[in-house]
Structures are given as structure tokens and as C-alpha cells.
Amino acid sequence: MLMELRGIEKRFGGITALRDGNLQVDAGQVHLLMGENGAGKSTLMKIVAGLYERDGGEMVWKGQPVHLRRPAEASAIGIAMVHQESLLAPHLSVAENIFLGREPRVAPGFVDRRKMAAQAARLIEEHHFPLQSDWRVEKLSPAGKQLVEICRAIQNGSSLLIFDEPTSSLSEGESQEVFRIVRTLRDRQMGVIYITHRLDELRSVGDVVTVLRDGQTVHSGAMAELSREQLIQHMVGREVSSIYRREPVEAGEELLGVKHVSRSPLLQDISFQLRAGEIVGMAGLVGAGRTELCRTLFGLDAMDNGQVMVAGKAVRLRSPRDAVAAGIALIPEDRQQAGLARQLSVMHNMTIANLAAVSRFGFLRSAAEGRVAAEYMHRLRIKAESGRQLAGRLSGGNQQKVVIAKWLVRGARVFLFDEPTRGIDVGAKVEVFETMDRLARAGAAILMVSSELAELLQVADRILVMRQGRLTGELSGAATQEQIMQLAAHESPGRPFAGAEGILS
Amino acid sequence: MIQRLLPFLTLAALFVGLCIASPHFLTSTNLSSVVRQTAVINIMALGMTIIIIAGGIDLSVGSILAMGGLLGTMAMEKGMPIPVGVAVGIFTGMFCGLTNGLLTTKLRINPFIVTLGTLGIVRGLALIISNGLPVHQIPAGFSFLGEGNLLQVPFVLWILLVCAVAMHVILEHTSLGRYAFAIGSNPEAALYAGINVGFYTTAVYTIGGMLTGLSGMIEASRLMTGQPTAGQGYELQAIAAVVIGGGSLRGGEGSVMGTLVGAFIMGLLANGSDLLGISPYLQQAIIGAVIILAVAFDELRKRRMI
To answer: FRET label pair with A473: which of A76, A213, A329, B246, CA 20 to 30 Å apart?
Structure first.
């Protein structure tokens, strides 16, 4: 037994984040830690990594009871954590980040830069990472940063490595690469704890699974003995139909026409249309240009060439204002950063893109705003105390609905969803799909960019695939994951990563 | 809730404390002097409120105040009627604010740097224009602006009231105000919502400059001179008033009521120090400490909310 946690408790102010966290890890084992957002997974692991101090319970490490108060203490006994959000210094190089805080030294206080670069290069080569030790970290994509985090964790010679949702920002191919690394670590007799809420990736990696719900361990056992449905049931605490299938509707007139749009070098000659009532999926690896396409269609980046038609009329997209005026809405991947004003109330977030509708003689009418808020909270089933609640206080799924409501208030008809289910609970995902379905049925056209192939297949009427800035194909909603991957993957076989152009953002 | 009320409670406690500590405090002469002293900072702070709400900052207000007062009084010196002189001062401030706004949005320079630069530039220009000498030839009637009474209440209090109500209406009931909150809360989300972020940010600085120009004229009227060196260090007090009143330098938060309370807290601190014979040097240090305390309380409150 490498580590055992018994009855771990943790409170933040009046909120109990963990009430009974139990977990046992052996060396040479990949242990999956699952649960919905807010179930306490990250909190439990931060206690193990010394980032939080526990309020109760016991932690036994290699037979000895331990009480960790600082990350340095955890690191000293051989526990390392790869964080979900990047905890790297963006202005430093890859090598400097890998060795941050434990640089090889020439003399006290003086860093041996050459040795550091050489060690980093060796580590990178050993694992075939598409990185170079002298690259500045700020230039890396999320996937690249994740790799640096992994390097940092494994170079330390740890015996327990914790991954906090390592693949949430990675594409399919890159996820496979992370799994390969995880297996290598297991084969070296390390213990691995792997936090995730993606169900489909698990079978290939996990030996044992522990499920947390509401701060409590509700299940722990061998992965092979559990079905997907049982797992979901443990996580959600009730039965959920894991297979969502959308009933397609008859597509109407063309709402968005994209013709030969290029933005060198990221987008090359992209053409497609979206029709009213359609949900069109967009698949591709990280760096294939999907997010760039959304940005360009929303007027955030200028296009070199090509034309965009909205409802049959050519529009010029020089800024988001033009896009918004034309009826295009973007629900960005990073809702918190680009979609939502957290300090504003739910109501004010909803009306911000169309204040004219709630104004009279240039003055805002709060009664009208209140009516709008009430209507859309009801229509989209937004769970909030009231329209006056601060938007930042809502759950991820409800924040997303507020962003959608904002666009409905504005009268948008073309919706670009960039990774709509990222960071959303299993239970809430179905609700996201239902919201999209309702939008489509009400006559909107939807482009859904997603790295979750299974979800694209569940929801989309047809699926466009991008590779290296080009559209490489269109598949029907009845396609298979393999067909999509064939179009999305690079020609050169055996290279799991997109290479430098995919890693550099 | 207690933390939200803290500025009000502080103000009330200061008031009561001073009533007890000094027999000279609760007299109409002293109180009206507090109001006049505070009005200049208060009106500047109202402009600073909307700037800070929109996620910006204006360090150049002290220099703008001097420039406004200088050009306004110079216009009167040249024989222009008083209202025109006042308008010149306000317009000067507006122009300076517009410049700050355009530099911030068009060149995309951090407002901290832009206004640090214009702080120097505007002050330098004021000294060049005036040759470093104050303007004295001002019509006597001009003193009414800063020293006169209307219905037995200092005229500046009426001006402050009008400005405060106008700013409150802008912030809470117009799209300009709503956009200021949105831009300050999350500029990227504001851009994504199709808001013309550059235009509204510039507008916010322009309004701030306008109010600073007005304060410049009030200051000039109180001293009956146009001083090119006026207003030094006022940016500290204006920012402090906003922050003490619950404004956040990260943007997206702030209110007219809070700023008024913040400015009066500082006014009472200064007045109280004078009455109790505390050195003006120590007053500076006290103001600095109060700013840090106010922000510390605010941070604590936010951390506890998470």
C-alpha cells in the first residue's frame, strides 16, 4: 500500500467541501478518481499534495501517518501533482519551468543553465514530447503546457503522481499520448491518481476507480467490474440515460454561408453552410483551426479572403460588433473569460448585448430588464436565486445558459458553440444538448465545435472535420469515431501529436 | 453586510468622535468649510468612480485640475465673462480626459502608464503656459462658485449634489454606465457582446476629465487664483475616496454613494486633524494608511465570499 486516506474532512468557511474522503493507492496502479464538479475530487487531491491542510481524517504514506501542510512537504516525500490549470511561469523557458525551485546549481545561488537545458532536453527526448527546452512557455498551447507540467512532475523522481483532469484541454490524439505516458509510469511501479469526469477515456487507463459524491467516497473498486451506467449512477446518485440522441428536425433556409474563407496560415479556403434547425458538428485536433474559424466568423480576427453570408446577405465582419449586428453569436470555450461578466448580475448579463430593447429615451428600465430575465430564466431553466444574483456565482452549466440567453435577447440566429461541454458535469451535459436542440427547433443554426467525438455523434446532424486549417470532409451524424479520426489525423502515421504547429498556440 | 456598511459606520463614528473631541467641530462655519474643502476632491472622485468602474485609472487628475483652473482663469483675465471662463476650464478638463482615453484605447497602453505620462505632460504644459506664475486678475464675482451660498447652503454643495445625481443616473440607468460596469468586469466579454469598448472607454475618461476641469474651477475660485501648481497629490485622494467607498481597482465595482462617503471620510480626517492640532505631514500618512486599510477589508470580504 502506497497511500491510504481515511475519513478526510475539509471545510472552507461554512461550506464543507469534503466530509468523508477515503482512498487507497498501490504502487504500479492507475487509480481513477471520479465525480461531478464540486464533488470534492480536486480538494481531496490538493490535500494529498499539501496545497490544503485537512481538517479531519488520516493520511498514511508508506505505512507512516503523515500530516502535510505545504506543497514542499508533499514533494519531499515523493508526491507530485499535474494541475488542471497551468501553474507555470509563462515568461520562462520550458527547461526553467521544469526545474523551477530545484535548479541545478554551480555555486549557491547560481544556476547551472547548461546542465539544466541538457537534463530537460534528455527528459523531453526520452518521452518523445514535441517540445524544446528553450521554448518560452507562453508560446505553448494548453496541450504543450500540460506536457511541461508532466515533465516537471516526473523529473522529480516522485512515487505518486496525481493528474488533475489532464485531458480536459487536449484533443483525442494528445489524450492518447497522455494515456501512454500514464501507462509507462505505472509500469515503472509508480502510483498514479487520475482525476477525470470523462467517461470514455477511462477503460484504457484505469485499474481501480474511486467515486466521490458530495464530498464523500461512495464507491471504490476495480474498474473492470463496473459498467458505464453504474459509474454514472454512482457519480450522479440517480439513474441517467447516458445515451442522448437528438431527433433531427427538417432543415430550413440557409442562415450562414461561408465561402472560401482564408486566414493565412491558420485557415485555408473554408466553405460550408448552416441552415435553420441544423446542429452541425466540427471535429478536429487541437490546432486544426476550429477555434480560429469561430473567431474569424465572429469578427475577432480578420479574414484574408472569402465571404460570409448571413441569411442570404453578404456581411463584412471587421469586429464582433459587425457579427453581433448580423445575428451571429459566439459562446466561447472559456465562458468565464470571454462570455460572462462575473461581477454583473444574471439579469444585466442577459441584456448587455441589447440594451436598446430595455431602454426608453436612453434610460434603462429595470422593470423591463426584470421581465426579460424572468422570461429567459424560465425558458432556459436557469437555476439562480433571482435575476439579481451575480453571474459568477452560478454553476458552469448555468453560466453558459446565461451567455446563451444574452444572444437570444439580442435576436441572434447563428450560434457558434466552442467546446460547449468543457468542464460541465455529466448530468448537466444532457441539459446543454437539450438547450441546443431547443435553439435549433426555434429556427437557429448551430455550429458545435467539440473534441468529444462521442458527443458530436450524439448531437450533430452532420459533422465537418478540419485538419491543419482545411476542411477535410463532411460526415453524416451516423458516422463512426474512426471515420472522424481518419479525416482529422495527420497523414504521417505513428505521430500522435500535431507536432510543433499544434503545440505552439 | 457589515463590511458593506463599514464606510458608512466609519463616517458616522468619525462624526460622533469629532463632535466629542472638539467643541469647534459642530459649528456651521466649520461644517461648511468641510463641505467646501471636500467638494473639490468629491467632484473629481465622482469622475474617478466611473473610470475605476470601467477598469481604468486616472493618475493625471491633479495636473488636469491645475490646467483647467489655469486656462479658465486666464480666459477671465483676458476679459471673458465668468460663465465662459468656467466653461473653458471644464472644456479643458474634457479635452485632457479625451486625450487620456484615446491614448489608452487607440495605442492600447495601460492607463496607469498613459495617465502617469499625461500627469507629467499636462503639469509641464501648465507651467510653460503660465510661466510658472499664478493668475491673479480675476473678476470678484468668480469667488461665488467656491465660496458663495445658495439658500444658506454652500453653492459647491449644490454643484456636488447635481454632479452626484447625474453620475448616479449615468451609472445605474443608462447604457453608458452599464457598459462601464461590463468593460470593467470583463473587457473581453464586453467585446464579445458587441460593445464598442474603445468608444465607451474613451467616453468614460472624457467624463472624468470634464468633472476634474470643473473641480479645477472650484479650486481656483476658492483661492481666487489660477495656480499652475494646484492639485498636486489630489489623485491619491480621489482614488482613495473611490476605493474606501467600495470601488475595486480591478474594475466592475463602485458606486456614487460609496465615493461620496469615502470623500467625506477623508474630509473629516483632514478637518479633525486640523482641529486637534495634528501635523499636516502626519495627515498624509494617515490618508495613505486609510487607503490600505479600506482595500484590506474589501479583500478580506471577497475572500470570505468564495
So the answer is: A329
CA distance B204 to B180: 8
Instruction: Tell me the chain B residues in contact with residue A12 when contact means C-beta distances shorter than 8 Å.
Output: 306
Q: Are B252 and A341 an interchain contact pair (Cβ–Cβ within 8 Å)? A: yes
Domain residue ranges in chain A: 3-236, 253-327+413-424+432-492, 340-411
- The domain A3-236 is placed in CATH, from the list 3.30.420.40, 3.40.50.300, 3.90.1300.10, 3.30.450.20, at 3.40.50.300
Partner residue facing B178 (CB), from A323, A340, A355:
A355
Structural domains in chain B (count): 1
| Chain B residues closer than 8 Å to A353 by CB | 193-195
In this predicted complex, what is the ipTM?
0.77
Q: Report whether CATH 3.30.460.10 matches the domain A253-327+413-424+432-492.
A: no
Q: Which residues of A touch B192 (CB under 8 A)?
A: 298, 320, 330, 332, 338-339
Give the domain extent around B65.
Answer: 2-305
Q: Cell numbers 439579469 label which residue?
A: A347
* Whether A171 contacts A286, CB under 8 Å: yes
Burial class (CB in 10 A: 0-12, 13-18, 19+), A489: buried
- Identify the three-state secondary structure at position A499: coil
Q: What are phi and psi of A486, to 5 degrees?
A: -60, -40
Question: For residue B235, what are the CA distances in angstroms to A289, A494, B48, B130, B230?
Answer: 47, 62, 9, 22, 12
CATH number for B191: 1.10.3470
In this structure, is the dihedral angle defined by the CA atoms of residues A470, A475, A481 and A482, taken in order, positive or negative? negative
Say if CB A463 and CB A272 are below 8 A apart.
no
